[in-house]
Write a structure and sequence with these properties.
homodimer; seven-stranded mixed sheet; three-stranded mixed sheet; globular
């Protein structure tokens, strides 16, 4: 990718390679690579080529759930203080769960692993020859809090063979975001066509770099990256206990501020599921005839009616609830169907449910002493104007939008500029390079008033069905038993 | 119809018209006709041809809901004892609501109406020249209880102009089911090709005649006529207060027994709504390729999996709930959806919900001192074997089925035979002519055990969402306000 995409990007930007003063990358996280001490991935070594565990474990790899469950149970049992920084729940996607799975399911691979590396850092390592562990993933995915990882005793209690995991395979000096990890090596210069010696920024994560890209670096500016799922990132000078955070990390988004990350595990995914499995052919055909996506066709129809006219309310939990309830055993709910309920009405109810879910997160921030002062939208769902207006009406606040269709790339460019010394800080680079359109969507007071009442019903359902254990958990248990036979 | 269908039926039965000793009819109810004193429908008179209110009001005509609401409110306010025989709710479909609407919306038609006649009786009147008011519709639809109708004072309080409705337009000697209303007139004999002078039975209702057709005349034998909606009819020697009855009528099904009628307002209708509005083209195409209806295709797939494996539970209230909650403001609910939930899983959950709804009705009978001793299925849904097995598993009882594909016609033939004197009573005629296959479906103990747990969840949802007023009522109110603008 570096060999083709970088030269092509330079060419299409109409600049000379020599104009480039620095490079930065962002990555999906948590994506882990087992390597030798020099960064060589085990999967590239002959003895391990046919061993699945020697390969990259993508962020969406969830098979370490039993290991995550044990980490969580033990953390709560021991009263580990770091667990509260993660809403009480370490994800199966993250560094420790994946490593514990590796130890227990492929001990020889675990033994051969000299470094357990975030891909976000690995690629930087390839560019500059230096392994700089970025503060963002170390904090959000690596349980690095207040200058330390989970203790040797904690790890040993999980599995005696895991006791030295941090000291032997994980620990690495932490580099702050916006710093230079090093300079572009001769080899990497030859791959990319960029000048040798330019700054290579510390690695970073796609969602988190979007905040400076949207010029959202001040306390209370919440950036929602809305796509298949939604990730909410916000800086604040205060450390607060906000229910259901994915993580709160010092310098996790901007060096010098507490970075808050919240999430809705299903947003566009729920709409996609509905469109793919629950929409009749006549809607698909009508959308095609109108030259619209099915999503846009259903949005046009559904949002043409007055708020509340469908008589429906839904919970947006088809993929569980990350924030604020932190419960992946939860599931979807739709209430109010009659014999005349139409597909576009259900589609709209699902869109509204995701907006209600966002509002619950915003309220969790507001109620915890780190209030949201501006709501900024980014991501693929920006392209649906009815959905965006619905969010503004439901939240009853104006919605700003990111001014770039390539938010993460712009965010990385900001980090590269800082690493190269063009700006003294990410905050100042963001002010100069970030792009935000303020208050693009403004709430309609009449719609907002009706949504207030619908949201009250959402909260009643949320309180009722979000209780643990409850009906949704029993349905999951029945499902597990049925599938197990 | 009489001029074509009757001769054709005799012909295809391979009998001579002279073999026929009596005729009986059944009708949908409550279907009302405004007539002159001689039975001439007003709509056939020149001055009224263009007046909609002069025409037949079919059972499914619901625009008299405001009038029904007033009847119910006043009945409860005055403590009328008859209201409890109808689960506390007179339907907008029935005789009094439709008549009050006629009075108030078309007073000149009301004034011209000399008789307000059930179509079930009107057709018998045409056949024999005698207006015999049958005990079934008089009780179930005409609020005739313990030998009287709602009082003059009650009617006057609804509307002073309604005070003499019973005495002037409705009252007529009551004829018991199985009696002869008269004999076939010369005119009717010429229409039908049947012998003049044969017995014409008292009119009856399609659902209610099905009980003797299924040879189900003993106390506790419940016949469920399962179609777009489900009607449950059962005889018992005891008068009991069963929650949510559509009606309890002395001699309403069989002369000499209390006839109980309960109902599920949406069953096949809910499945039809789902198939028509929520099923993607690939399922429709696969069903067509397999030569199956979409219903059967989804049933085959959905019921191939173990009970509970879909992780779903639904409420069958998309068309409200008649029995046992008597609340048409209720609506549907589905809970447990994930991003992998498939159409056939939702279809199955909806089928199960209707089975749970039936169980709630059976339990209401059992808990009220008039227990169900045999569950007998009739109607269009019989053709779906997975659905029938599901009902058996959910109810955890064997299910018998009616032995005729023409249940109402057979039931009417039984009444004709009694009216003609071939049998001394409907009970004895049913024993000879009725057809029932006993215990065709038997519960699978393992499935029944899991359904027990799913039904417990259904009851939790039912208790929570069935409360009045509740979330579903507020959603209806929002809908009304939104539609009203």
């Amino acid at each position: 990718m570096l060999k083709h995409a970088v030269p092509e990007a330079v060419r299409s930007a109409g600049i000379a390679p020599s104009d480039v003063i620095g490079i930065a990358t962002d990555f999906t996280a948590c994506t882990m690579i087992p390597t030798l001490a020099d960064g060589t991935p085990l999967c590239e070594l002959e003895p391990y080529r046919s061993e699945p565990h020697a390969y990259v474990k993508l962020w969406k790899h969830h098979s370490a759930q039993p290991h995550a469950d044990r980490i969580n149970a033990l953390a709560h049992a021991r009263g580990e203080t770091w667990i509260t920084r993660y809403g009480g729940l370490i994800s199966s996607e993250w560094e420790f769960a994946k490593a514990l799975q590796l130890l227990e399911e492929a001990p020889e691979i675990y033994a051969a692993t000299e470094r357990w590396v975030e891909a976000a850092d690995w690629i930087v390592w390839q560019l500059c020859g230096n392994y700089a562990r970025n503060a963002c993933t170390a904090g959000y995915k690596g349980i690095y809090q207040d200058g330390q990882y989970p203790s040797r005793e904690f790890l040993a209690e999980l599995n005696p063979g895991f006791a030295e995991f941090v000291s032997e395979k994980l620990d690495q000096p932490i580099a702050q975001l916006g710093q230079a990890a090093g300079t572009l090596s001769a080899t990497a210069a030859s791959w990319t066509g960029l000048p040798e010696g330019i700054a290579v920024a510390v690695g970073n994560v796609d969602a988190h770099v979007t905040a400076p890209a949207a010029c959202a670096t001040e306390p209370g500016q919440l950036v929602a990256i809305m796509g298949t799922s939604t990730c909410h990132v916000m800086n604040h000078e205060r450390l607060a206990d906000v229910p259901g955070m994915c993580g709160v990390v010092d310098g996790g988004i901007i060096d010098g501020a507490w970075g808050y990350e919240a999430g809705q595990s299903g947003v566009g995914d729920i709409l996609g599921w509905y469109v793919n499995t629950q929409v009749p052919e006549r809607c698909v055909a009508a959308a095609a005839a109108a030259g619209l996506s099915v999503h846009q066709y259903l949005s046009n129809l559904g949002f043409a009616e007055p708020v509340g006219s469908h008589g429906l309310v839904a919970l947006d939990w088809n993929s569980g609830n990350r924030s604020p309830l932190v419960d992946h055993e939860l599931s979807g709910l739709l209430v109010g169907q009659t014999l005349t309920t139409r597909p576009e009405e259900i589609y709209r109810a699902l869109v509204e449910a995701t907006a209600f879910g966002t509002r619950a997160i915003v309220e969790a921030f507001n109620d915890s002493g780190v209030p949201v002062t501006e709501f900024i939208a980014a991501g693929g769902l920006l392209k649906n104007p009815q959905l965006m207006q619905c969010y503004s009406d439901v939240l009853n606040v104006p919605i700003s939008t990111i001014g770039s269709a390539q938010g993460p790339a712009l965010g990385s460019a900001i980090h590269a500029a800082v690493a190269a010394g063009a700006y003294p800080s990410v905050r100042e680079a963001a002010a100069a390079m970030g792009k935000r359109n303020q208050a693009v969507y403004r709430p309609d007071p009449a719609a907002a008033a009706v949504y207030e009442r619908l949201y009250a019903e959402y909260r009643i359902l949320s309180d009722e069905f979000g209780r643990r254990p409850g009906l949704m958990h029993r349905l999951r248990q029945l499902k597990r038993e049925a599938v197990a036979g």
